Amino acid sequence: MKFVVVTGMSGAGKRTAMKMLEDAGFYCVDNLPAALISTFVELITLPNSEITKVALGLDVRSDKSFEEINKTLGSMKESGIAYEILFMDASDSILVKRYKETRRVHPIEGNGTEDSIRKERKILSKIRKKADYVIDTSSLLTRNLKEELDRIFVKNEAYNSLMVQVMSFGFKYGIPLDADLVFDVRFLPNPFYLDELKQLTGNDAMVRDYVMGFDEAEEFLIKLSDMLSFLIPNYIKEGKYRLVVCIGCTGGKHRSVTLANALYERLKDKGDYGLTLMHRDVDRSS
Length: 286
What we know:
Strand content: 15-25%
Distance between the termini: 55 Å
Radius of gyration: 22 Å
Helix content: 40-55%
Largest sheet: 5 strands, parallel
């Protein structure tokens, strides 16, 4: 039997992950009280049980201290019941943003949402350390999450412990708050000042050809790719699970988009890590 325990930070996408696993053929039970976990496990592991794939969703609403859940899972492991833990996570700033957008109340009582998130992280710290898979949804699109879950739990392929996001942005709108590495490509000539390119973006061939037509752009791309080829395996070795590489120009429409696209193509299918691409400011009107 394939038994997956799905848990993680409130607002990080646990319910979405459970729905996707259900669509993939898993028998899903969400928010089961800690006292009933052992009974549930006994029932699904009976010799005549036809259930072969189970996903059990657990969160802080199941038990305020979560300690009972940790003890129950420990007892299951000692009894020889094999399971894997999927921990859904996201950055604090993204979680706060999601709560503001949905106007939901955080399940942990605290002095504001940020304090509630800090308390929840402390409660979940033990189970997170034991997690077999940690998926950070801060910058994942729904389709990216589905691809990752399918890769792990349907295709049984290798788990990408590090998710790399390449992001273009405009300095005039501020540096992304979740940036790990920031690179400034404003040293390149700006297509904005050419009438035939001003209304286009780095996703258009004319802008791409113009920007990459400068030797400095190609040299920058080579050096950056080489540096990331060195850094990424070392980040993986140290247990980092999310890396946001930001490339910025003035408005986030031309040079940064071009170089972010080019870097994405250079890094694609080159290692044991997930890779996504995002253009934060390409659609801004001013």
